[in-house]
Every structure is written in C-alpha cells, then in structure tokens.
C-alpha cells in the first residue's frame, strides 16, 4: 500500500495569511462526542449527504509547510504526492466525523482539488483523483503517530482514509483570497460559489463541491489576475 512518510489530512481551520495563520489540528470535537451510530449507518448517511446535489467532486486540504505535531512533521504538499510511487498516497489523519464521512462517500475516479492549507498563501494547487475507496486508517492504531486514537478498535475502527493519485497541477495557483472575492460576490448575485463549503464550513479538511463549483473553479485557470 503506497503511503507517504508524513501525512496530515486532519488539520483544518480558517486559513490565514502569514505566520499568524499557524494553528493546531482542531476539527470540531463537539461533532465527535455527538457521533454514536455504527460505521455502516455512518457511511449510509454520508452517501445520502453527498447525493446528486453535491455531485462527485471534492476539495481536500493538506499542509505544505513543516509543522511538528507530537514530534512528527505533518507536512505533505502536492509535490510530496507527486514524489510518491505511482504518484499515489493514502489520505490519512482525518479526525473529524463529518470529514471522515465524506471520505467514506467517495467513489473511484472522483476528482478532488489539492488545497494547500495553514501556510503563507493558502489555495488550490492541483487536481487528484480517488484510486481506492475508504478503508481503515492505519494511523489510528499506531501509538507513536500524532493521530493515534486509543478509543478506536481494530474490529470496529472509527477512522477511514482513501488513496489519491496526482492528476495535474493547476494551470495557475487559485488562492484563497481570489476564491473569497468570488464567494462574496456570488452571495449577492447567486453565482456558483455562493454556498461553497470552503467558506461556510471552514474547519473541514475534506469538503464536497458541486459540479457548478468545480467547473467554475476550473474556469478560473484561464483568467488572468487583474
């Protein structure tokens, strides 16, 4: 199983520019305490939540800059993904129930934007695709791993991951600041990004995109920044 040496898909939070944007992995713990249904019903629920309305596109955040968590560097950039065997890696470390449910709803060949988060200039840097559907995240059982979860049992694991494969770099970097400008405009006009989860559910490291959102963001590649 291809896996990166250092991965963090669980860190998420409102992205900020500059050193003050640094933050620890804190995905809504209230959701965790509220989650009590079994894994099968969770997957079913996730599939319903990710129905045709959300289409089959995703945005997935990872940190491109070195940051130690419990002594482990959690850096994993799109360049790191490209450097993996077959340009493929497992997307581990997600420790938020809603984000995990989105992982469980993913299907083979679905596309996702690779988003650099928690860095000087956050934004979308490339495209990848799902090449293996959800299966137990090994890091939840590894005591030395910063994402170890002693409450998770091997016969009933709490956390899942998928395998992703690099597709291509974006033709140009699509920054958070640029996306926010469109989001704010579209809220007023009813444009494609009016409900984009990147702004309505900022702390999620794995987020769904509608086809309209996905297509609009791809179209930005062809536009020059003013």
TrEMBL record:
Pfam families: EVE
Source species: Castor canadensis
UniProt xrefs under PANTHER family: THYMOCYTE NUCLEAR PROTEIN 1
GO CC list: nucleus
This protein's name: Thymocyte nuclear protein 1
InterPro entries, A to Z: 5hmC_binding, EVE_domain, PUA-like_sf, THYN1-like_EVE
Stretches assigned to coiled coil: none
